[in-house]
Amino acid sequence: MRTFAYCRVSTTDQTTDNQAREIAASGFTVQPARIVVETISGSVATSERPMFSKLVERMEHGDVLVVTKLDRLGRNAMDVRSTVEALAATGIRVHCLALGGVDLTSAAGKMTMQVLAAVAEFERDLLIERTQSGISRAMAEGKTFGRPSVLTAAQRVEVQRKLANGDPVAQIAREMDTSRQTVMRVREAMAA
After folding, report:
1. At what angle do helices 153-164 and 180-191 cross, to 10 degrees?
2. How far apart, in whole angstroms, are the C-alpha atoms of residue 115 and residue 112?
């Protein structure tokens, strides 16, 4: 059994030193060559992280992977869960220090992961509900969405008149001091 550590930071002005010290202090012995350090945003899926992919290629059945926190391992609960499940399928155990060093591939670890996934899904559903509620309230209050129109109502009527006269779109855009795309949107609205 070999023990590996995965330490990740999001930006180059951050360091993984604290993560490595925390892993050593927890009782895990990790040879320096088996500490994998990566500087990449947490928003990047684990499967798309180059150093993590190389780490997984080096690991074998019976090895242990240690991380300080779940967010080092994945971008969200679902990403962490799929990563842990993929590692477990190859016989690699995953320990998370923030969860008391629990082996996430054990029965207790799997239960912990299921609870975390359920909480993440609940939070996502609440966010969607709040967003929909906010949109409904704003619409009820008469608020408009999207960017404000570049043209005033009077300018829009003028563009429609010029289009009806057969004036070229580029010429109208120059005369109205707007983009061709804005004139084309007025034309599309007229055709609808």
Report:
1. 80
2. 5
- Angle formed by the axes of helices 77-89 and 107-140, to 10°? 150
Catalytic positions, written as ranges: 10
**Structural domain boundaries enclosing 69:** 3-116
Instruction: Please provide the distance, in angstroms rounded to a whole number, between the alpha carbons at the two ends of the chain.
Output: 68
Model confidence over 67-120: pLDDT tens digits? 998 888 887 777 888 888 899 999 999 998 988 888 888 888 888 878 877 877
Asked if residue 112 and residue 157 are part of one domain, the reply reads no
* Domain end marker among 88, 116, 144: 116
- Give the model confidence (pLDDT) of 118-150 as tens digits: 877 787 788 889 999 999 999 899 888 888 888
The residue ranges of DSSP E strands in the chain, in sequence order, are 3-9, 35-39, 64-67, 93-96, 102-103
**Structural domain includes residue 121:** no
Q: Total structural domains in the chain?
A: 2
In a domain, 181, yes or no: yes
Q: Are 104 and 112 in contact (CB under 8 A)?
A: yes
Is there a single domain that holds both residue 7 and residue 99? yes
Contact 151, 109 (CB under 8 A): no
- The predicted-structure confidence for 101-110, as pLDDT tens digits, reads as follows 888 888 888 8
